[in-house]
Amino acid sequence: MKFVKSAALVLGLILAASATASAQAPAAGTPSRFNGIGIGLVIIGAGYGIGRLSASAVESMARQPELVANIQTAMIISAALIEGVAFFALILLGFIISYS
Questions:
Q1: Residue 72: how many CB atoms within 10 A of its CB?
Q2: What is the largest CA-CA distance in the chain?
Q3: 67 with 61: CB under 8 angstroms?
Q4: Is pTM beyond 0.90 here?
Q5: N or C: which end of the chain has fewer CB within 10 A?
Q6: In whole angstroms, what is the distance from residue 46 CA to residue 53 CA?
Q7: Measuring CA to CA, which residue among 4, 30, 9, 23 is closest to residue 93?
């Protein structure tokens, strides 16, 4: 359940970041100083999600040492998916910023 909450938080931050980047379109030739807020939110959200995921995995490993391999595999796959979403959001925000 915690992973679902973390994934929802990351998704919400991505949506908020893209809204921030697209809503703050600068005038022609004027760079916007607010577009970096969206990128920062995406990075913070991904870091928070991976941190929560790691904490839960370590706690699970401490409670059930016989399942360490399964828990570690699931944790690595989930962390990679969260990082993939974060990289996709950063690339998407980069395009939004460069074409706005």
A1: 14
A2: 61
A3: yes
A4: no
A5: N
A6: 10
A7: 23
What's the token pair of residue 43? 């990075």
Average pLDDT per block of 10 residues along the chain, 100 residues long: 68 64 54 66 86 93 94 92 87 74
Amino acid 16 reads: A
Question: Domains of the chain (ranges plus CATH)?
Answer: 39-100 (1.20.20.10)
CB atoms within 10 A of CB 64: 11
> pLDDT value at position 30?
55
Tokens 């040492």 belong to 65
Q: Which residue has the tokens 């998704």?
A: 11
CB-neighbour burial class of residue 73 (10 A; exposed 0-12, middle 13-18, buried 19+):
exposed
The rounded distance, in Å, linking the Cα atoms of 22 and 38 is: 10
